[in-house]
Amino acid sequence: MKKRRSRKKDKIPFFIIVIIAVAFFLNYYMEKEQPKTQPATSSNVVALFFPTDQYPETGRHIKEAIAAGESAICTIDRDEAEERRKESLKGIPTKKGYDRDEWPMAMCAEGGSGADIKYIDPSDNRGAGSWVSNQLEDYPDGTRVEFVFRE
């Protein structure tokens, strides 16, 4: 009989460890499933501090376009980006050694026809586009983003 009791006593720590492991797993899974950001509302705007020191031409273009009346707010809408890019670049010829930068960007609902276009260095434009994309990848469509520049 004593052997049975010791076996039961040996099993108790094992079951406690299993219960703790299951609790940690469930906690991790539940946290992972929750969205990292809340969808934007009309009063909720995410501030994105654009690194003009890394991408000076793109930063200058965005600031100039905003000063000329374009929106500083970008409402993320990835689904229609290619169509807006076609609209914004329509009639703007390509130029060897340059990219056609657009503001508002194609991924912004505000973009498309009538966007401000400027020829800039391809590495600056593509680097900036990649940086913005990486910064906003966890935000859902509909999120409103304000581009902010530190002077």
From TrEMBL:
Keywords: Membrane, Transmembrane, Transmembrane helix. Residues 88-144 form the Deoxyribonuclease NucA/NucB domain. This is DNA-entry nuclease. It comes from Cohnella faecalis. Pfam families: DNase_NucA_NucB. The chain crosses the membrane at residues 12-30. InterPro entries: DNase_NucA_NucB.
